[in-house]
Design goal:
The complex is a heterotetramer of chains A (309), B (141), C (482) and D (653).
Chain A (H helix, E strand, L loop, with lengths): L1 E4 L10 H13 L3 E4 L8 H7 L1 H17 L4 E4 L2 H13 L3 H10 L10 E4 H8 L2 H7 L8 E4 L9 H4 L9 H8 L3 E3 L17 H17 L4 E4 L2 H9 L1 H8 L7 E3 H8 L17 H28 L1
Parallel strand pairs in A: 1-2, 1-3, 3-4, 5-6, 5-7, 7-8
Helix pairs in contact in A: 1-13, 2-3, 3-4, 3-5, 10-12
Chain B lengths: L1 H5 L2 H5 L3 H4 L5 H5 L6 H14 L6 H17 L4 H12 L9 H6 L14 H18 L5
Helix pairs in contact in B: 6-7, 6-9
Chain D lengths: L2 E6 L11 H9 L4 E7 L5 H13 L4 E6 L2 H14 L7 E5 L11 H20 L8 E3 L4 E4 L3 H12 L4 E4 L14 E2 L4 E2 H14 L3 E4 L2 E9 L2 E8 L14 H5 L5 E2 L8 E2 L2 E2 L11 E2 L5 H4 L5 H5 L12 E7 L1 E4 L3 E3 L16 E3 H8 L20 E8 L15 H15 L4 E6 L9 H10 L4 E4 L2 E6 L5 E7 L4 E7 L1 E6 L1 E3 L3 H8 L26 E3 L9 H20 L2 E3 L5 E3 L9 H5 L5 E6 L2 E6 L9 H5 L5 E3 L4 H12 L2
Parallel strand pairs in D: 1-2, 1-3, 3-4, 6-7, 6-18, 7-10, 18-29, 20-27, 21-22, 21-27, 22-23
Antiparallel strand pairs in D: 5-30, 8-9, 11-12, 12-17, 13-14, 15-16, 19-28, 24-25, 25-26, 31-34, 32-33
Classes of the chains: A alpha/beta (309), B mainly alpha (141), C alpha/beta (482), D alpha/beta (653).
Amino acid sequence: MNFAYYPGCSAAGSSADYEMSTRAVCRALKIGLQEIPDWNCCGSTPAHAVDTELSAALCVRNLDLAARMDAATVVTPCPSCLSNLKHAGKRMENPAFRARVNELLDNPAAEKLPETTSVMQAIASCRTAADIAANVCKPLKGLKIAAYYGCLMSRPAGLMQFGDPENPTLMESLLSACGAEMVDFPLKTECCGASFGIPERPMTAVNSGRILEVAANMGVDAVAVACPLCQMNLDLRQKQAAKAVNVFFNMPVLYYTQLMGLAFGFDPRELGLHKLCVSADPLLQKLDALRREEALAEAKAKAAEGGNA
Amino acid sequence: MRGVQLGLKDQVLNSRSLWMCLSCSTCSLRCPNDIDVAAVMETLRHMARKEGRVTVPKVEKFWFSFLDTVRRFGRTYEIGTMALYMLRSMRVFTDVDLAPAALAKQKLGFKPHVTPNGGAEAVGRILKRYEERAKREGVRP
Amino acid sequence: MPVLNGKELRIVGFLCNWCSYGGADTAGVARAGQPTDLRIIRVPCSGRIDPLFIVKALLNGADGVLVSGCHPRDCHYSAGNYYARRRLEVLKQFLPVLGIDDRRFEYTWVSASEGQRWQHVVTTFTDRIHKLGPAPRLEDAEPLLKIADMALTSLRPLGTGQNAALDDLKAAIKAKLPELDCVIGWQQGYDAAHTVPLFMRTPEDVDKLVWGPFNVNNPATYLPSFKGKKVGVVVKGCDSRSVVELLQENLIKREDVTIFAMPCQGTLDMARVNQELGRYSAIDSVSYDEAGVTIVADGKEHRFCMNDYAQGKCYGCTTPSAVLADTRLGVPEAVQPGAFTPPELAMLDAMSLEERLGFWKGQMERCLRCYACRNACPMCVCRDYCIAESREPQWMTQEATAKEKLFFQTIHAMHLAGRCTGCGECQRACPVGIPILALRQQIARAVAQLFDAYKPGLDPEAVPPLLGYELEEKNIHEREWK
Amino acid sequence: MRIGVFICHCGSNIGGTVDCARVAELARAFPDVAYATDLMYSCAEPGQAAIEAAIHEHKLDGVVVASCTPRMHEPTFRRTVERAGLNRYMFEMANIREHVSWIGKDKEANTNKAAELVQIAVEKLRRDKPLTAKSFDINKRVLIIGGGVAGIQAALDCADGGVPVVLVEREATIGGKMAKLDKTFPTVDCSACILGPKMVDVAQHPNITLYAYSEVEDISGYVGNFTVKIRKRPTYVDWSKCTGCGACTEKCPSKKTPDAFNEFTGPTTAINIAFPQAIPKKAVINAEHCRQLVKGKCGVCAKVCPTGAINYEMQEEIITEEVGCIVAATGYDLMDWTVYEEYGGGRYPDVITSLQYERLLSASGPTEGHILRPSDGKEPRNVVFIQCVGSRDRSIGRPYCSGFCCMYTAKQAVLTKDHIPDSQSYVFYMDVRAPGKMYDEFTRRAIEEYGTEYIRGRVSKIYPDGNGRLVVRGVDTLMGEQVEILADLVVLAVGVEASKGSPQLAEKLRISYDSYGFFMESHVKLKPVETNTAGVFLAGVCQGVKDIPASVSQGSAAAAKVLALFARDKLENDPQIAAVDVKRCVACGKCIRCCPFGAIKEVEFRGEVKAQVIETVCQGCGVCTSTCPQGAIQLAHATDNQILAEVNALCQC
């Protein structure tokens, strides 16, 4: 089972760890990711804010390349790329729009453009919870995690088909398959402030601050995210967010693929955990401690069993 | 939305909220009358930009900086975007406090990632054609 | 007063009084603008609409017919619209065979509160009819007489059935004869190449019984007239299905009828045989062999191989041996049912709508209106009160126009919907050889498609599809009004 | 035949876009038309007088009126024609208003269309035959479905009018939703105090037979002679012996039974009496939660019961009642608000519905009237009310306003202040709807005297802030700002829909219903309590959202209709029924098999089997006429010839 893979620009830069952990998890689950050789930037928010046809042109170039690789589905980890690619695909169905976009491209786009879906949905579609659990060698039992999807992943509901736009549960099912205890996180689809961290920092800080505050109040060990920009706003800018809501945070913000990678037994460095600003070491120590206790308890139980067998 | 209903074009196009919108489409999701508010905001932004009425210029400057790096390399180059943004908006101290942490964690790579085998040039041509068409149609790109 | 100014076309509407007529009122109260072409006829319920009203309108100048009733489950009479849904869907699938574009007839469901929906239905339907333009009239159609020869490919090898156990059959009949008033079979007719029905009352009569490809008559036709008497009948496969159908509609009692069955290997199409023989004074001899029959007439030899000269129905026959029998002789031969379009219907399928209209114009002009087809049909039980010749109700005039004669054929076909076993007697009895079986086959095909491959005449307990309904029809779905 | 044609102007409604004089002129040329004219208002007094005069003057024996829809004025004109001495069925109408003049402005096309519609009416009239109604006796008893306030009012009025009433209530007690309310607006008097006496009257009224804990299983027959099968669900308590002392409820070990009457705000025992003023005040065992019925071992209530009323082997019974007409008063249910994931989708215990809040306020509720937070049982300080949850919301398919939520929210805000003086209530609303007498003054009091803060805006999201309280984020559109309130308790004014099972009941009653399950009245303005099915009336919210005063008045209105129907000893049947022409019938039995009402039977006629129509059962649908191959059975006033005449008139090209 393999897909055409669209890594997205941040894969090489700010979310390299997301890239490494995604590839690791897909390797473990034997999901083939064929990277589109000369993929280009989807334009993210600036492109569609400037002009929808420009954003579509940038995205359709990628879809066209994927179509030439006759891939049925293009997979991308980043929700912003996912949203742009999907919107472009949908809008291209309108012949007038297709003509306007083709004017911008070197050659007219292929008639049948492949579907786009997120890595998370791709994993869920071809691997059952049992398959995932089978791969788990270091269960995350004892870790309380809040799943944070960000706003683009599930909206607009009709197009993204990501389950209930208000209350998606896909990350919960994946991570609980790895043994983690998932908290019912109410702000899972609130916006983190997206790319406004640069031009209008206070807005992002307040939004991210509120999300982190509620997560902290619920006493979770870490927040699992699926979007490079959310990760940056919650992790890199955690101090700015803390200042905005004047609450002290030390909340590790990991990609869900990093957590799954840990469960699959990958070495933290392979998953890029060292790249996190708020270090995940306390998390790892707690995990090891839990595992040691468990091993002890098992040994004692076996001993007791051995005793009276 | 009330402004649009009443047709107060100037007041709407000059409002700040157009540029403060994160386009997260929560509004479209919750509207009891099924209005795609996010799309309305997006269209209003396009109309405002095309008529040159940008009330919060720094937001647009950031977009252009972002798109310039895409035009040049086919993919974003974070350092490049930040540099161009600082030049354009003269806000030289944006995120300076984050720079050390980001560099230490290799979050910001110095080397730009160029789309291989002609990809970057293709993207460049797309953006060039877009600008030419915008000029032909007498609209600000 | 056919005053129709240039802008309008003739669109007739049949609306049920309780829902759709109310829906049209609601649209009116809301001043919902609509084109003026539609003329609405109010009926108590959509179940009251006989599909023949619609054919009558379409054949007499209507460019479009729109029927609307209550939504399923909403009917004021609880089930009227369920019957209507089945009948009107069968009609919609039947119209193309006549050469009438089925898009000119539409049926839908509108409730009394749906004014807006009614406005949309009327506007969309009127636009559709205007796009189709005025309907071609049967009168001005160009008669098309060229009949393409029918492609004949059989599902099973056809033969002459000479090795059938005729003597055992005769013995069996003689054994049962005393307790029966008579047994119906075939005997040789006025020459060796024709048979006529045989009514056996004495053992000597039984000796006259013959079995072979010339046994074309369907003895089941006579059973209703023997009502109340004990009677026996020798049946081919298709005849037995007519017997089952008569039982299903309790036109005969099961205990009154004793059925003798023999496996049939096909019967000859006498029209084409006679055409081949041409003018002759006497038949010298008829010799049978495995594959066909050789007839020597006035010294001239004619070879009739069964695979070329059998009746259309025999090629697609899937029940060579009787479906229901008391005494069964010979070994029933299994036939694996394959996809099969009867030759007459296949011929018409190949034509375009205009050609079909022209075809029926040409054929109906040759029709003598002798009603032999009606009298030969085993299922036609109305006899003297057939609505083709009555004034109470008066569906047809006695004019000898192609339109009236085609309307009779539609009446017969619609009355046979879900009942016709395809025995082909109507077409065989037609003195001028018009392939009218095609109309009945089209209806049978529609019924099979719509009601889980229902074939009449297989199960005496089955409910004929048009006399029952399902709350949720599996194969009938409401068409969207785009 | 001498036919009179009357084209009505209906003021300008028809005259505006149809040249009535021209149509009358064209009509004179139609066959058998002896007189044709146009009238300004044919349905008005002078109009009808003109028709009667014309009938006498021109010795007419048939009348065609071209005016509005026959669904409205056919009965009117039939009486006119009858007064003038003609048979009321020698009359036809052409609808040239709703179907012609009101839907298009093209005068020439309208006039031509009107003329054609008149022509087909004349053609049909030429083949009409006089019909006389037969009369049949009626069963002067009424079935009332639903024991809410509307049903109770209808039952009392009918019973006082001398008509025996069969009242069927699905729950264990009558009182419906009103019995669950603590106080009622606008007078804030106690709901049980004003409803209780009426419920007792129902119990004690000699004319009323009450079947509680029962449902209507099947209805057959027609106006005057309905046969109704009622399914009495097993209560496992013999109500003839039970005195309602409540001893069993104290001793019952199964304390965790969900309490439907209190809207699941608190647990109750498996055997319980809904509330102190319940009528009938009898115990009922909840089968799924009774240990004896589920696991087969307990029997505490049987031991404790002083009169030995408990009977675990009780089975459901089917009772058949013969009634003359039916009143449906099945009330409403709150819609399933958990579709709103943004309000927690039912996962947050402190987000409750208005009905649940009523039970918390009520002294007979689980908290004896103290407002306590379901999560931790503490008294809330900030209470937020959210309006229009599931009303006026097209995105979830509920575009209509539920009518009385604004009023009861104002009342609940007032009561909250009474119960907890230092509490602060907030109400998020879009538009306050307070149309009744003293209604708006009441909401003003809630704001001014009781300090309730009304915020105009919709709530976007409710989420727990992590330490026990709820953050309610909305907007104040008047201030143009976002608003965030830290609430201890959130009460949702949940939208209303028809009670569960309404569509199925409508199908049994053979009346139509809309997509929300509300029953469809005969005319929304002029006949709100009647339906298209003769003998079936409506009362209360089952017909559409309305508050208690309106439901009570509809209860009385329905009762008035019932008493009017039973004022006559005999009912005339509708003569537009089928009849068999004996000579044409060959007894093929198709009509018998397809008649939806089983109104045709086989009879012996001179030694031959023939079909025959049972006149009182035939409803005149005509399915048999279109099924009979030889046209032996014809529906009067819609025979094949009459309809064919209309088709031929239109299609003779």
